Amino acid sequence: MSQLIDSLEDARAAAHRQAWRSAYAAYAEVDAQALTAGDLESYGEAAWWSGKLDEAIAHRERAYASYIADGDTLGAARMALTVSWDHNGRGSFAIAGGWFANAQRLLEGLPEAPEHARLALVQALTALFGGELDEALQLFDGVYELATRVGDRDVQMLALSGKGRAHIKAGEIDKGLALLDEATASAMCGDLRAHSAGLVYCITISSCQDVGDYRRAAEWTEVANRWCDKLDLSGFPGACRIHRAEALRLRGDWPAAEAQALEACEELHDFDHYIAASGRYEVGEIRRRRGDFAEAEEAFRVSNEMGRDPQPGLALLRLGEGKIDAAAAGIARSLLDTPDTLSRFRRLPAQVEIAIASGDLKTARAAADEAEGIVDSYKIGNQRAVAFDATLHLARGQIHLAE
């Protein structure tokens, strides 16, 4: 019995200091019947950070049932929201929706608590990802105010991040970047829990890359890399490695970029299908540039199966193979299915290159004109992003040369 108590106390102490590998190992030594609802919640977190998502979900479901049995409605709602998030990342949207509805029902009529702020945050993020930017901005303001009232610093900063992202998608770049810098500074100083800090980093870095602010992205990527390396865990850090891989690819260090992208895919495993798919896409882009077309096609295939459109990389791969008609059809189809302007900008330079190869200068000019219009609507401090401006000059130069 003494050894059991020692193991349980060790597990709790490790969980308290977020030493998740140690916590996982210690909990594994404890009789499952001795675990409280709080222990099961911590055990699930430890399993999650140890790269064992199925096990994490199982522990969290047991924690949910235990909180229900104890009459702890807030604890049960918190677990329902967490399990919903887990399934959403895996692409199991129906299951995620069921757990989210469960959390909503549990929280109805209860006094304001951090769980209400987390519920509202998911609703705001849903509006953001659905393209409802005006609604998202209003919701994020409400989330921030609610999180302030209930004292949830994590949700406060995530609301700021989400609002910053919404401003950027609406073309209000300076306003959005300022909010993202504020939230990320808070994550950097250890003000947030690890999972929240990781989400803030990802939103900030991906937003900087989307608007061509690679200087700012590089600064925050360096900070995020140190944070990831310090964690020494599997799972979530893989998202940071994808950003690192893209930065290395853009600098031309393809071997290092490929190593980081592959490590990211391994760490992410099945935690978040879309982020893992982005990792596979990055592998495909690196291999395409190195001339390894067969392996590039395989990476793009896996990326597509995991839910990430493999364009423009796949179309440029077809161009490299000399399959110009297939390349032109692929990039045109992708643009038809892509209404988001920043996502279109990532595809338009490829359309310029492919159209020139097929002798269709009219399409090349139209793609370059659209790209220029997008860049002019996403200025940073009334100036075009340097990387975006360089892309436009390259496209115009290619067209002039073809002419």
How would you describe this protein?
This protein is mainly α and 403 residues long. Among the domains are: 110 residues, Serine Threonine Protein Phosphatase 5, Tetratricopeptide repeat, CATH 1.25.40.10; 73 residues. The longest helix has 18 residues. It is globular. The protein starts with a helix and ends with a helix.
User: Could you report the average pLDDT, rounded to the nearest whole number?
Assistant: 89
CATH class division of one domain: Mainly Alpha
Count of separate DSSP helical elements: 21
CATH homologous superfamily classification of one domain: Tetratricopeptide repeat domain
Major beta-sheet overview = none
Distance between the termini: 84 Å
**What global shape is seen?**
globular
Classify the helix fraction into a percent range.
Answer: over 70%
Named at the architecture level, the CATH assignment of one domain is Alpha Horseshoe
CATH topology of one domain, by name, is Serine Threonine Protein Phosphatase 5, Tetratricopeptide repeat
Low-pLDDT residue intervals, each spanning 5 or more residues: none
The count of strands amounts to 0
Succession of helices and strands:
HHHHHHHHHHHHHHHHHHHHH
**What share of the residues does DSSP label as strand, in percent?**
under 5%
> Helix- and strand-based class?
mainly alpha
Give the oligomer, counting copies of the same chain as homo and different chains as hetero. Answer: single chain
- Report the radius of gyration as a whole number of Å: 23 Å
